[in-house]
Amino acid sequence: MESFRPSKTCCRQIIFDVDENDVLTDVKFINGCSGNLQGIAKLAVGQNIDVLIEKLSGIICRDRTSCPDQLARALKEYKMKKAGLLPKE
């Protein structure tokens, strides 16, 4: 499982897992708007992370970001770590 600390959203943590085919297999949002985030999670699981990054990047709620945008940022960071462009924690 991967963990990401979003910024400028009600959600305080995104926990997710990606399989060997770059498909999101699980995602949980800690805090935030429960119903909306459960819906986003159900729609996102089973999707390729590149598709999710493309669809969710740039969605605005407040402070020029949103929980979906933060998920896209988490997935981008995951890809960079996987490619060795960022240190793994």
Description:
The chain starts with a strand and ends in a 7-residue tail after the last helix. The chain has a three-stranded antiparallel sheet with strand order 1-2-3. The mean pLDDT is 96. The chain has helices spanning 34-44, 49-56, 67-82; strands spanning 2-4, 13-18, 24-30. It has three helices and three strands.
The SSE order reads EEEHHH
Query: What is the percentage of strand-forming residues?
Result: 15-25%
Count of separate DSSP helical elements: 3
How helix-rich are the residues, as a percent range?
25-40%
The span between the termini is 12 Å
Largest sheet: 3 strands, antiparallel
Radius of gyration: 12 Å
Indicate the low-confidence ranges by residue numbers: none
Tell me, rounded to a whole number, the average pLDDT.
96
Strand order of the largest sheet: 1-2-3
The general outline is globular
Class by SSE composition: alpha+beta
Number of strand segments: 3
In brief, what are we looking at here?
The protein is α+β, with helices and mostly antiparallel strands. It has three helices and three strands, in the order E-E-E-H-H-H. It has a three-stranded antiparallel β-sheet.
Can you give keywords for this protein?
3-stranded antiparallel beta sheet; 89 residues; alpha+beta
